[in-house]
Design a protein that fits this description.
The chain is an alpha/beta fold. It has two domains: 308 residues, Cytosolic phospholipase A2 catalytic domain, CATH 3.40.1090.10; 100 residues, Immunoglobulin-like, CATH 2.60.40. Helix content is 35%, strand content 20%. The chain contains 17 helices and 19 strands. Strands 1, 2, 3, 4, 5, 6, 7, 8 and 9 form a nine-stranded mixed sheet that branches. Strands 10, 11, 13, 14 and 15 form a five-stranded antiparallel sheet that branches. Strand 6 and strand 7 form a beta hairpin. It is globular. The two termini are 19 Å apart. It holds the Pfam family Patatin. One of its GO terms (biological process) is arachidonate metabolic process. It comes from Dictyostelium purpureum.
Length: 437
């Protein structure tokens, strides 16, 4: 059975509403199947990390996360009076952020062991200047005095070249650490260390997601990789490329702060994702990137209702007749089903196995679609022998299979949009020669 990965950009602040709306639309297309049932690994930076933690460790829905960001805009993004008097003061107080996150995720480090369903992590950066006793945190060149780290809520074996990890933290600790934006909020202190916003060094954590999941599931194949942005205002890819060429200059001018323009953040995230795909061509057919184009610039700390409504409305408009979104949903539906107990019966020259479902309770709209043509192959004929719902299992047999070819079992079930689905289920295609070994 393959694994499914969700990576959420940071650096967008209130624009993480975009991510929540897209995830809500995905749930709708999959007949209200929770995001935590559609992915096995989630990682996020900054507010993208807040989304990942909440969806992976609570029963919160993406729509409820939209409500959380509405509250953050209203209650958190109120300029600190001292900021108006002293430019070195933080622009916002973090008491309301702590309060809102405390009402959303667990504050107890011991609760971490109870989150077995989805493996989740957030990025952060360790402020080494604090360890050195340097208190001039707002004037530091962050490129020299911070290093990336992650808060992983799963067992991992660190390697020499892997990113450093933070242990013994609560979900709340991780949430506060990943969104401690310089100049906006104070750094987050945990033990003897201080942490800053994960988007400082990993606006798009897709490469970390790829590295981590390879270690976690080194003997399994990846089914899906989904990367979600927080919206962009650029159409011309040449502009994005030009911005990428000015990477170091932009960082230097902003002292490493992610209060840089939305355009730079978006372009850097796109380049990170593009680089990952170029270096891993095998991901081409299973990797998806959604980053809606917005009609106007929305600052990451925008507090007005009209901006939030624009984010919601344009994110929903973005997916209408969007082929990438439709293909993603079809693939997510197909990946709910996987192969088990596949073997070759040489005496009868048959391949036999069972198609199973990851879900304990299969949504009725999916059940109602099931028939003898729900799963097909193009290389040969497959016969579905029975359909059992409790637990879900569909025994099948393939007579006279092509010995030298792969067999690819595809799903004919459709999402809410009714579009034709012809994507492979998890564990497919499989090679008959490997089964013989």
């Amino acid at each position: 059975m393959g694994y499914r990965v969700l990576s959420l950009d940071g650096g967008g602040g209130i624009r993480s509403i975009v991510q929540c709306v897209l995830l809500d639309e995905i749930e709708k297309q999959l007949y209200a199947t929770p995001i935590s049932d559609l992915f096995d690994y989630m990682i996020g930076s900054s507010t993208g990390g807040i989304v990942a933690l909440s969806l992976a460790t609570t029963n919160k829905t993406p729509l409820q996360m939209v409500d959380l960001f509405d509250k953050i805009a209203k209650k958190v993004y109120k300029t600190n009076t001292l900021y108006k008097l002293n430019c070195r003061a933080n622009k916002y107080r973090n008491q309301e952020m702590i309060k809102l996150l405390s009402q959303t995720v667990s504050t107890n480090p011991e609760d971490v062991n109870s989150y077995k369903k989805v493996k989740v992590a957030v990025t952060s950066v360790l402020d080494e200047s604090f360890q050195l006793g340097n208190e001039q945190k707002e004037t530091l060149d962050y490129n020299e005095h911070i290093k990336p780290c992650i808060f992983p809520f799963y067992f991992r074996i660190p390697s020499i070249d892997s990113i450093s990890e933070v242990r013994n933290a609560s979900i709340l600790d991780a949430g506060l650490a990943t969104c401690a934006t310089p100049s906006f909020f104070p750094s987050f202190k945990l033990g003897n260390n201080k942490y800053r916003d994960g988007a400082l060094l990993n606006k798009n954590p897709c490469n970390i997601a790829l590295s981590e999941t390879k270690q976690l599931w080194n003997e399994n194949n990846m089914d899906i990789f989904l990367s979600l942005g927080t919206g962009t205002t650029f159409k011309d890819s040449n502009i994005l490329n030009n911005l990428n060429n000015n990477n170091n200059t932009t960082h230097k001018q902003n002292n490493g702060s992610i209060s840089a323009s939305q355009s730079f953040i978006s372009s850097e995230s796109e380049e990170t994702y593009g680089g990952m795909i170029r270096e891993n061509q095998w991901m081409n057919d299973i990797s998806f990137r959604l980053n809606p184009e917005l009609s106007k610039h929305i600052s990451l700390d925008s507090s007005d209702e009209s901006s939030r409504n624009l984010l919601k409305n344009e994110s929903r408009s973005f997916i209408l007749n969007n082929q990438i979104f439709n293909n993603l949903c079809s693939k997510l539906l197909s990946s709910l089903f996987y192969l088990d107990n596949v073997e070759i019966d040489k005496s009868s020259n048959q391949v036999r196995g069972i198609i199973k479902c990851r879900l304990k309770n299969v949504p009725s709209p999916i059940v109602n679609q099931l028939n003898i043509k729900s799963f097909i192959t193009e290389q040969c004929d497959i016969e579905l022998l029975d359909i059992n719902l409790t637990p879900f299992s569909i025994p099948f047999k393939i007579t006279s299979p092509p010995i030298n070819n792969e067999i690819d079992i595809k799903c004919n079930l459709v999402c809410l949009n009714g579009r034709v689905n012809n994507t492979s289920i998890s564990g497919s295609p499989f090679n008959l020669k490997k089964l013989n070994k």
